[in-house]
User: Which sequence fits this backbone?
């Protein structure tokens, strides 16, 4: 299932899977770092999961966000 970018501004970028049961969010922290978060809800056909990781750069957080979307893409 494809992912769509639902929000993209100076602070938050958030993608939602087309079934609506998974999101990946990237946000800038007040200290200049970044957080990437994966949330797959219990109703999803794949397993429920919540992950959150901190990064020093936006590029590193974007790489993690893409890896999570690629890994959680379902047919």
Assistant:
């Amino acid at each position: 299932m494809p992912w769509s970018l639902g929000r993209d501004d100076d602070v938050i970028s958030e993608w939602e899977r087309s079934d609506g049961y998974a999101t990946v969010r990237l946000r800038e922290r007040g200290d200049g770092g970044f957080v990437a978060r994966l949330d797959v809800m219990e109703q999803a056909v794949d397993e429920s999961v919540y992950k959150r990781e901190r990064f020093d750069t936006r590029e590193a957080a974007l790489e993690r966000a893409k890896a999570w979307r690629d890994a959680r893409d379902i047919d």
Summary: The beta strands are 3-8, 12-17, 22-28, 34-40, 49-55.
